[in-house]
Amino acid sequence: MSVAALSIVNPDIIYDGSYFDMDYPMGNIPAEYGVCTDVIIRAYRKMGIDLQKELHEDILSNREDYPNIIRVDYKIDHRRVPNLARFFTKYGEILEDTENSSDYKAGDIVYWKLGGNKDHIGIVTHIKSNNGTPNMVHNIGGGQLLEDCLFDYTIYKHFRYKK
Length: 163
Description:
Number of helices: 4
Strand content: 15-25%
Oligomer: single chain
Helix content: 10-25%
Order of helices and strands: HEEHHHEEEEEE
Radius of gyration: 15 Å
Distance between the termini: 11 Å
Shape: globular
């Protein structure tokens, strides 16, 4: 997963959370656009896992597990951090959110709360900063980046998802 995430690092990605028309399954927004959830979706796709489809099918089968969704829509539901977090909570391993960098393994997913209603998500990589903290691949507005930012925001949840 770490290698897949690193393969999509691109500082030229334009941050855009707009609603886009897309195919299903394996739908994607235009390659030059993205937000933090698109990092997750794109990295898993590199590994042959279609989270758009996986999440959509789970929402259809278990609607009550996704209370924030007003109208089910395969074009946007997978692009929302709380929806991905619910999916990872159900089908992944929920890990402790600590301040110990050794607890975060390559491929783990970190869900941050930025304040207010702002959610953020990224992927832990095997590349470490000078102080030993694993670098993250994420997009918070400056493109799909590899950065030493694991502890820059409030960690809300920590997952490991392997299918």
